[in-house]
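Expect chain and fold; see below:
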Amino acid sequence: MGKRYSLDMTNGPFLKKILIFSVPLMLTGLLQLAYNTADVVVVGRFVGKEALAAVGSTGSLVNLFLNVFLGLSMGSGVMVARHIGEKNEKTVHECVHTAMLLSIICGVVVGILGFFASSAMLRLMNAPEDVIDLASLYLKIYFLGSPGLLAYNFGASIVRSTGDTKRPLYILTFSGLINVALNLILIIVFKLGVSGVAIATIVSQYVSAILIIIYLSRMPNACRLIFKKLKFNKTELKTILRLGLPAGIQNSLFSVSNVIIQSTVNSFGSVAMAGIAAGSNYDSYVYTCTNAVAQTTMTFSSQNMGAKKYSNIGRVYRHCLIITTVIGVGMGALGCVFGNQIVGLFSDDPEVVAIGADRLLLVMPFYFFCSLMDVAASQIRGMGKSFEPMIVSLLGACGIRIFWIYFILPLNKTLTNLYWAYPVSWAVTFFVQFLLYFILKNKMKRQGIFADEVI
C-alpha cells in the first residue's frame, strides 16, 4: 500500500484524518446510491409507476437477505484494522484470506436463497397483484449478482481498514458508470424494463468485484490476496463471526421491521408504494453520508484498540458525533424544504409526489437521531463489543417499530401515523446506545484499559 493512500489512525490530530477517511467513503456511498437512483428514475420515467413501485419496494427485502452477510464484511474490516494496529502481519494475512473465502461462500448462499425465496416473501409482504410479478422478476435477477456484491464489500472493507478509502471510490465510480450506461441501453433502446435494470446492476456488481480483487492481489503488504492461500483460519473466522454476525443480525432485524412496515405500506396500494419508494430514496442519501462517519469511528477505534492507544477512543467518538449531527441536521432540513422537487425527480404523478413529500416533511427533522444511533453502535463495535449493540437494536429500534405497527397504527391507520414509527425508534435506540458506551467504557476502566477522558 503506497503512502499516499495509507492513513495513520493512531496519532492525532483526528478531526482532519476523520474527514480525510470519511469523505471518500461518503462519496463512494453517494455514487452507489446515485446509480441506484438512476435505476429508479429511468424505470419511473420510461416504464411506469407499477415498475417504479416494483423496483423501489424491494429494498427492505434485499436488505433482509444481505445484511447478515454484509455484517460479516464489517467484522472482517474491524479485525484487519485491529491487526494492523497491533502491527501483526501474520494475523493480517490470515484474516484477509479467511474473509475473502467467506465472501465467496456467503455470496453463493445468499444468491440461492434470494432467488428461490423472493416470490414467496413478496406475497407474505402483501405486494399488490399489479406489482408482484415485476418485483419478483427484478429480485430473481438481482440476487444472481450476490457473489459479486459480497466479494466487493468484503474486499473494500479490507482496503478501507488500511486507511485507504479512495481506491474503493475509484472502482465504484467506474462500475457505476457502466451501470448507468447499461440502464439507458437496456431500458430505452432494448425495452427490457425491470429486467434491464436488474441486469445492469449485476453486471456492475461483478465488475466492481473483479477490480477490488485485482487490487487486493497486487497490494505490497500483508493485505495482499494470494488465491492459492485462500483458506479458513479458525481463530480469525471465529473472531469475524463474533464481531460481524451480531452486526449483521442487527441490520437484518432492522430489515425485518422495515419489511413489516413495507407490508403495511403495500396495503395502501401501488400509488402509496411508489410515493414512499421515491421519498425514501432521499433517506438513503442522508444515511449514506452519516453511515460513512459511523464506519470511520469503528475503523479508527479498532486500530487504536489494537495499538493499545485507548485514550484516543473518546476523542474519535466525540469528533464523529459532532460531524454526523451536522450532516444529519443539514441534510434533514434540505429534505423538508425541497421535498416536492426531490420526489418529483422520480415521478410526475401528483399523488405519488404528494405522498413522498409528506413523508419527507415528517421524517427528515428527526433523521439526525438515526445518524447518531449508527455512530454510537459502530463506536461500541470498534471497541470489540458487537453483541450488546445488537441487543439494544433488537429491543429498541426493531421492537418499537413492530409494537407501533401492531398496537399504535391500528388506532389511526394512516400513512402519517405509520411514519412516526421511524423517529420514535431512532431516538430511543440512540439514547440507550449512548448510555451503553459509557457503561462499557467504565467497565474497561475498572479493568485498567481506558484512561480518564471527557467522553
User: Anything to note?
Assistant: The chain has one domain: 14-442. Confidence is low (pLDDT under 50) at residues 1-5.
